[in-house]
Design a protein that fits this description.
4-stranded antiparallel β-sheet, globular
Length: 537
């Protein structure tokens, strides 16, 4: 997709430079996420709506162009031909009486309209002055920094309004009209919600699975095509609150794909791996903070071992005392770091062997770091040697600015060295050698689920590799298939499902989904060290 942005003259004169940077950030994300070979033309205004020069109220507004009636059967056939999520369950005749409406942007996506330089819609964003007058707040222009309590996340508002131009609209509040997204609006299994009332939720399997709750007239005033407040932080919320990052979620990307926007987002299905090598993952239970080591044979759980002692959040791992065994890095609520030294028995990971049973896990010692105010740690990796330090460097990040600091700790917990990297980056998720060349890359992820691999020389960024697609939150880095290159483990934050992703270059080539899911838990970055530091028999 080519998102072609133009600006009103008022915007070019009065909008701050950071506004244009935020728009460009969203444009690049959309061009990457949606792969339809079409150009969508949108005019954006700051302070005044570009269509009629009216003042834009907080937070923003949009309008589609060339909205017209289209044939239901043709639309369904085009969606099926695209392999759009949910299209296979659409009935031969429309379940909603009335006229199916569609704007020119979505018509282009479905091949119903050819290329055109005509505008497909308009987006208006409230000025900072209007925002202050109507809400007492201001804009946060940064795509990565968490807004302050009185700031609104501009990137999310732009994503919200532009996707409405792309067809994310319900017409059920107008008698005798409906949109494509209304075909996936359900009140109960097998029962479409054809009005403006409650309940109303997004489902791709005939109402069996509730993917997200739609806003409706009984919940709040606003657009029927937006999500209800119970969905949580999300760009498609009916009312985006201040003080949080409201980015694109998996449900958002799935909805856009259901409307006909093809892409490589989380909801697309990469080749699955039904059987893989025996492997071990580690999760931390949200309720008790205990760590559970999970042994898998292929994709099926064969045994687990629960470490009985509750721990601070596990944020990394490595062999810090050079005993050939896994050590955990934990971090307290004030930034304290504690190294946890484990003891455990041998397992068998040989091909064709019995599933890898675990035994005799315990804590042999701990080493508290000598400072209590470190930035949040997100994994560990080999970033060079430091005198007196035997373990890997911890990758820490300032959650406010996105700056990264590498920390080397001695086995007694004292800090041996640090290296502050230049620049500001997406959220760090871990580190690993993705090319098998002995060089460690830092894994970062945007709020939209995109993954970027960063290569540093000294303290300077020397390479960046943006992986194709958008994924669940990255939780751990591990050489799952033992090919000498790091792989990525992600987890669905709602269901607890664990998926291991295998890349060739920047392209996802396979996915290994573990069963069962582990709700109420978070995968911890202990797998890389665990799989290579377990004594084998």
């Amino acid at each position: 997709m080519n998102l072609n942005i133009s600006y009103s003259s008022n915007t070019l004169t009065n909008a701050p430079a950071a506004f244009f940077s935020a728009v460009n950030y969203v444009r690049e994300i959309f061009d990457s996420l949606f792969t339809n070979n079409v150009t969508v033309n949108v005019e954006i205004g700051y302070g005044r709506f570009p269509l009629d020069n009216s003042i834009v109220p907080a937070l923003g507004e949009s309008e589609q162009n060339h909205v017209t009636s289209v044939g239901y059967s043709q639309v369904v056939q085009d969606l099926v031909n695209q392999g759009a999520p949910g299209s296979g369950i659409l009935s031969a005749s429309s379940p909603i009486s009335g006229v199916l409406l569609m704007g020119s942007a979505e018509e282009k996506a479905l091949g119903l309209l050819g290329a055109s330089s005509s505008l497909d819609g308009w987006v208006g964003i409230a000025s900072d002055a209007t925002l202050m007058q109507q809400t007492g707040g201001s804009w946060s222009f940064s795509p990565t920094a968490v807004p302050s309590p009185n700031q609104y996340y501009l990137v999310g508002v732009l994503e919200h309004e532009i996707t409405e131009v792309m067809g994310r609209s319900s017409y059920l509040d107008e008698p005798g009209q409906y949109g494509v997204m209304d075909l996936y609006r359900f009140a109960a299994p097998g029962v479409h919600q054809t009005g403006t009332g409650n309940p109303a939720y997004f489902s791709l399997d005939g109402g069996i699975t509730n993917l997200a709750t739609f806003n409706n007239s009984q919940l709040a005033a606003g657009d029927l095509g937006d999500w209800a407040a119970n969905v949580g932080a999300d760009a498609f919320l009916n009312a985006l609150p201040p003080g949080q990052i409201d980015g694109l979620s998996t449900a958002d990307i799935t909805l856009m794909q259901a409307l006909g926007w093809t892409g490589s987002g989380t909801s697309s299905s990469p080749p699955s791996v039904s059987a893989g090598p025996p492997h071990i993952a580690a999760i931390q239970l949200n309720a008790t903070h205990q760590v559970d080591f999970l042994a898998f044979s292929g994709t099926n759980l064969s045994e687990s071992f629960l470490l009985s002692t509750p721990l601070w959040n596990v944020v990394g791992s490595g062999d810090f005392n050079q005993d050939g065994r896994l050590d955990l890095v934990t971090q307290g609520p004030a930034g304290q770091i504690d190294l946890i030294y484990l003891t455990y028995g041998a397992i068998n990971l040989a091909d064709g062997a019995h599933p890898p049973y675990l035994s005799s896990f315990g804590i042999s010692a701990t080493a508290m770091a000598d400072n209590s105010s470190y930035w949040t740690v997100h994994g560990a990796g080999n970033f060079g040697t430091v005198a007196g330090v035997s373990g890997p460097a911890l990758v820490s990040q300032d959650p406010g600015t996105g700056m990264i600091d590498l920390l080397w700790f001695r086995s007694n917990g004292s800090l041996g060295a640090s290296n502050l990297l230049l620049g500001n980056y997406w959220q760090v998720c871990g580190a690993g050698d993705f090319h098998g060349d002995g060089h460690t890359e830092i894994v970062t992820q945007s709020h939209d689920g995109q993954i970027d691999l960063l290569t540093f020389t000294g303290s300077r960024l020397t390479a960046s590799e943006l992986l194709n697609g958008s994924y669940w939150p990255v939780m751990a880095i591990d050489d799952m298939n033992h090919d000498g290159r790091a792989d990525i483990t992600v987890q669905n934050s709602s269901t607890g499902q664990i998926d291991h992703l295998f890349f060739t270059g920047t392209t996802l080539t396979a996915s290994q989904l573990d069963t069962p899911a582990f709700p109420g838990s978070a995968v911890v970055d202990a797998s890389l060290s665990l799989n290579h530091l377990m004594p084998l028999v």
